[in-house]
Amino acid sequence: xxxxxxxxxxxxxxxxxxxxxxxxxxxxxxxxxxxxxxxxxxxxxxxxxxxxxxxxxxxxxxxxxxxxxxxxxxxxxxxxxxxxxxxxxxxxxxxxxxxxxxxxxxxxxxxxxxxxxxxxxxxxxxxxxxxxxxxxxxxxxxxxxxxxxxxxxxxxxxxxxxxxxxxxxxxxxxxxxxxxxxxxxxxxxxxxxxxxxxxxxxxxxxxxxxxxxxxxxxxxxxxxxxxxxxxxxxxxxxxxxxxxxxxxxxxxxxxxxxxxxxxxxxxxxxxxxxxxxxxxxxxxxxxxxx
Length: 290
Known about the structure:
The chain is of the alpha/beta class. It has two domains: 15-123 and 280-289, Aldehyde Oxidoreductase, domain 3, CATH 3.90.1170; 132-278, Aldolase class I (TIM Barrel, Alpha-Beta Barrel), CATH 3.20.20. It has helices spanning 15-30, 36-41, 63-73, 102-133, 152-161, 179-185, 188-198, 212-220, 233-243, 260-264, 275-278, and strands at 47-54, 58-59, 78-81, 88-89, 94-101, 140-142, 175-177, 205-209, 225-229, 248-252, 270-272, 285-289. It has a six-stranded parallel β-sheet. The chain has a four-stranded antiparallel β-sheet with strand order 3-5-1-12, with helices on one face. The protein has a two-stranded antiparallel sheet with strand order 2-4. Helix 4 packs across helix 5. The relative contact order is 0.16.
């Protein structure tokens, strides 16, 4: 467990975003014939009382999706969230209490736990980076578009539960000019000018740079943010000094728990890490009957 503060006041995602994801996961599990095991063994009127309990320490995320999984199968399932998204848990601590029709709870169990364990893993990975960076600077930890297909909204919410912040949500909410865009356009300046001409005045433009010379070119063209890609701490310090507040500075590339402190100490505004969504280990949680 990290020393990241709880964030229990994190607003939940709108049900409109979450429900299609949960429904798809339930359909995938139920298949063509439903829950053969539960329907054969558990009487239709049987009741279940129990709790989803942490098996290891971490930061919770995905409670809304988990609760919805049970409720979509039977609205009579009563779910009480004891530890909301953003809360830290220790082994043995109850996250969600459940009571209601046994068939619905047992059928939804794996779908709910898959989402809850996965998203809590993302939140916990984020919290570990936030905690490692905090003593060294003011940089915020942000995620990327390296998310599980279909789970982006949930995983980015889990990043916020872990104390991080979100980068762009997709290709349509910001311009990020990367190395291949620059190569096709023939340079940073022409790429930025085309981008400015092609998007609205409220759309920010970020440019990925590998060298200080590229950084100077991006700043001269009025970049709103610069992604300082795979620069070592000394290069990052020089880049921050060169930017001098004229643009948002973002460090990216090979960010780990061991390296993030040195990166934060350079004075960058943001530190982005893809692995907190694409490679985070799950946090083990399980459903126990009372």
